[in-house]
Write a structure and sequence with these properties.
By secondary structure, this protein is α/β, with parallel strands linked by helices. Helix content is about 35%, strand content about 25%. It has 14 helices and 17 strands. The longest helix has 27 residues. It starts with 9 loop residues before the first strand and ends with a strand. About 45% of the residues are buried. The structure holds zinc ion. Zinc ion (ZN) binds next to loops.
Amino acid sequence: MACRICSGRLREFADFGRQPISDAFVEPGDPREEFFFRLAVGVCESCTMVQLLEEVPRERMFHEGYPYVSSGSSVMREHFHTLAKRLLTTELSGDDPFVVELGCNDGTMLEVVADAGVRHLGVEPSGGVADLAAAKGVRVTKDFFEAATAARVRAEDGPADVIYAANTLCHIPYMDSILSGVDTLLKVDGVFVFEDPYLADIVARSSFDQIYDEHFYFFCAGSVSRMAARHGFELVDVERLPVHGGEVRYTLARIGARTPAPAVAAMLAEEDAAGITRLSALDRFAATVEGNRDRLTALLKGLRAQGATIYGYGATAKSATVLNYCGIGPDLLTFVSDTTPAKQGRLTPGSHIPVLGPEAFRDPYPDYALLLAWNHAEEIMAKETGFRESGGRWILYVPDVHVV
Ligand SMILES: [Zn+2]
């Protein structure tokens, strides 16, 4: 297989085996066969982009029933509101500015733009969450963003001051179409701002569960700047974000339109020094992950053998990789607790562990809880103080397997 960015040669460094669609929760008794694909990751020898080796058809992941909502976490709500206010004060120009968000989900960011009375459009292929955005007064079109969509929006609404995407761009394999669409839609001096999980954080934290069907690319400043240059763009700013286990917010502008911030050169130098896209570093990451997988399954089996009860906490998309890669099923986790109504009463994809609402977690508390939503650890632990007070302990597997 060739690199989806530059057609260069890909070198595989990690294989997580057969994996289901991470958000395809199974209705008990549903006779339809689940879809599986091989989840493996490689790095391009030419442009250094880290990417999946097998592409899952987009309609299998992003559709009417897509269950993830960005407003589900108060930390994320705050994060997007802060960003929206900043874009409104720093990036808009002219009498009638226009803001576009790719993959606007339930409109958590754009609702601030809408409330400010600024012209905007969310492009969102997952119908259910798009309806939630519309209900908040956000103008949204139910569509995948690509070159043709961009041309249509440009014809109807004119050019955009800002195009923004959070946890969306890394989902999209066909980057040529996306960036040529951004080129079509963006004002001459406009910016394309996007934030996604940061490869350096994934490697440093061994957070292998960031690797699942929806995350096709694993960006870093180096690979993003090379990708941008292919379409006449330049990386002009980077900002590290503490959310979702470590992300970077990248700002692209047309080459020469803006002076790159010093943070760009600093991040590029840091990445070079650490060699994060070198095969040796990525092979090391894969070996660490294998060790953590073996330690986690040994711990869970040992605790179960002693008669301990263990529940999962957070039926996140990323938990699909952990559960299926580690072979964790209902014999080890009685159930997984999750606040998303659409997931409750169903089974986790591939691993078939029942998903129950948060009330089941408290009635009674288990001896141990495997924290599958570790990227929200602080928020969750603050909410579940009763669990700790009851003597319960959390099991984490990022950056290594430990019990707290
Ligand atoms: Zn490449």
